[in-house]
Each structure stands twice: as C-alpha cells, then as structure tokens.
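Notes from hallway chat w/ T.B., transcribed later so I don't forget. T.B. wanted the structure written out for a chain they're using in a teaching module, and asked if we could keep both sequence and structure tokens in one place. Agreed to drop them here.
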Amino acid sequence: MAKAKLAPHMVMADENGNVYDDPHLLMLCRRGGEWALPRPDELVPLPRESELFLLPGRRAVGFDPAGGVVERVEQTAVAAFAAPGHTLSAHPAYSTSADAAILPLFAYGAVGFAQDRLYICAHRVDTDTRQQFAHIPKSRIEGEARRLLRQYPHNRLIRHIISNCVLRYACPAARNFVLGRYEAPLPTQRACNARCLGCISAREADSPVPATPQCRLFFRPDPEEIVEIMRLHQQRETGQPIYSFGQGCEGDPLMDAELLAQSIEMFRAAGGKGTINCNTNAGLTRAVIRLAEAGLTSLRVSLNSVREDIYRLYYRPQQYTLDDVRASVREARIRGLFVSLNLLFFPGVTDTEDELAALSSFVQENGVSMIQWRNLNIDPEWYFSMTHALGNPSPCMGLAAFMKRLKKSCPWLRYGYFNPWLGERAEIAAPMPDTGAGGWPR
C-alpha cells in the first residue's frame, strides 16, 4: 500500500504566544523570492533541542487547497531554529507589516504540523551528538564550570570562557570544554578585517540589526593562558581532542597570527596531541602559511558564497578580497592542512545553478576537503532583498539536490556540521591545487 503524502498544516501563534495549527491551510515555505509547498524530501520531524520563534510584525501565511489560493491570517508567524547537525532548507512564508523591525540574528526555518507533531524543512548533515545537552543536568555543567574557575583563578581566558560563554550565553563549545569533551574553544582576538552584516559579536553603529547575540572578547590572552587550556583539554578529552581558534565571541583570529603560532608551537613542542583547528574568514594568506608551519591541522573557512558580489555584499571585507581567501585555501592545502568551507547556506540564494557552478570550481581548483553546512543567521527578507538587488537569481534546486550534484562533481568531499577530529595531521583525499608558478611567495 502506498504511503500517504505528508501535508503539514500552517502553524501560527496567538497574542499570548500559544502555538497551534490551522486545519484548513497548508504550510508554505520560502526559498528566496519563491513561495511553495514543502518538497517531500525535505520534511523532517522537528529535532529534539530545536527552538520555536515567534516573528513579531509578521502574519502567518498558508495555502488553501480547496480554493487554490494563498491566504494570510491575523495570527503571528512562527519559525523554527533547528538543532545543531541540521541545515534548514527553506524559510517560513509570512506577510510583513511596514513598521516591522528587522529580525534578530538567528536562522529561521519553515515549520508545519502533521500527524500530531511539528515538521521543518531541513536536512540532517551530521550525526555527531557533541552539541546535544538535554541528557546532561544543567547543575552538572555549572558545577564543573565553577570548579574550573576555582582551580585556575589566574587564567583570564578560562575565566572568559566560563563566566561569559558558559554561564551567560550557554555556548555549546564552551559547555563541552567544561565537561572535558570534544572540541575546546580558544578565542583570542578582538579585531576583525570583515564587517559582516550578520556579525554575532559586534554591532556597527548604523546597523538596523537590533542587537548581537553575544559580546566580543575584550583582552589579548597570553600564549601561556592558551596553552594551559589546550593541555587541560588534552588531559580530560583523552580520545579525540580538538582545539579551535576562532569563535563567535571574537573577531578573526588571523589578525594576530603570531600569538596563535607561538601557542601552537609551545603546545606541540611539549608533546601536545590532537587536532588544532582555526575558524576564520581566511583573508590573510601569509598568516595561514605561518600557522601551517607552526603545526596547525585544519582550517575552516567561513563564507556565504564564492561569487564575488554576493560574498562582498555580506562580508564587507576590509583590505582583503575573495581572491585572498582563495589563495589561503590553496596554500593551506599545499601545506597539508585539511580545509573545510563553513558554507553559510541561504535557501534560494545558495542552492542555485550559479552558485553550484562557482562552488564546484572553487572546491576542485583549491583542494577543499569538506563542506560544513550551516545556515546564515539573518533576517530572510532583508538579506534576500539585498542579494536580489544584484540581479535576478538563477533557478533554485533545493538543498538536497544541491548537495547531491556538488558531491557528484567533487566525489572526495566530506559533508558535515562540526569540525572533525583528524589526529595531529590529516589524511587528505582532496586533489592538490595546480600552483602554476609555485604558489604563494614565501
């Protein structure tokens, strides 16, 4: 017997914040400027540890199958923020009032209701459970945090990670550090050479975004403070320790590459084991080379697009270009680093024919090993209106088809959501770039 096609109802919220469905209207989703019913291959039950958001100033919109028309209701629109490991493939459809404020910096996914449960448009890209905390009592996390504060009273970086990132923001990476597992965050930098529209740690004075989700690191740590954290994490995470420079509470770590290089060299010289990673916009190629020579294992490069106009629109780079990013990726691969792209996915802009062609070439030509599929945290209408002003987008194929076609053109690519453990030095299947004249000058 054929399985019945899933047809979720529209979800909305009343003036008291109660969320419920409309039994007569179907869920609509948005990809760029297109409104449509969800595709069967993208509907998944709302993952555990996801969140629902009410969207003030935005009225819910659904599809009336009886009349074949789109219908707007008076109730407030609702969106879902998917749990880590999932990438949203569509935004919610809604009608925005003229005086509505720009939404805070989160990812907003389409959500509907069917068969007594909520569904979202998303794809699970990583089965790693490193950022799942429902089974861990909050008291245990806070207890471990306060114990480390007492044990390391003079380490300012430990104090920042615990007091600010754990106890104030409940940062998943910082929580894992105090639990002694997985990946330890190593924030180091106050400054940045990009002025991203959706920066989550610093707000420009003229930005229409109401607030950033967190505040930036306010001091320069010493190499000894950084290495103390690395050694502590190695003692506690004895299986697959990862140490990551470049966190949401700082600028770009390459702005002070010598601090990172000294820390890496001190740690490695004393027999330090594990994967040392750097999350960055990769605008400073010489800094990447310095870290590779110091003992870095992997580089995760964040970008919203490999098309110059769309990249520049969002990142607003200062004294670097997308060509510099490309050079950094090439030099990292040549020097044996495992390179991931932290692709900030936006339905209707990323999953297009133009982006697929550009991304396939970028991956093939520069030796990229992995795509980490994260969503761009930004007001969907605001971002799309700016990208649309650059020109009409090419046809949208959806996240699942985009991933499949990219993998077909680049079969060595690894997909995921988190930085992988690679040992001290990765085994790399990605092709070596053709350096032509010999690569970046030393």
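Follow-up for T.B.: The longest strand covers residues 51-64. Might be a good example for the class.
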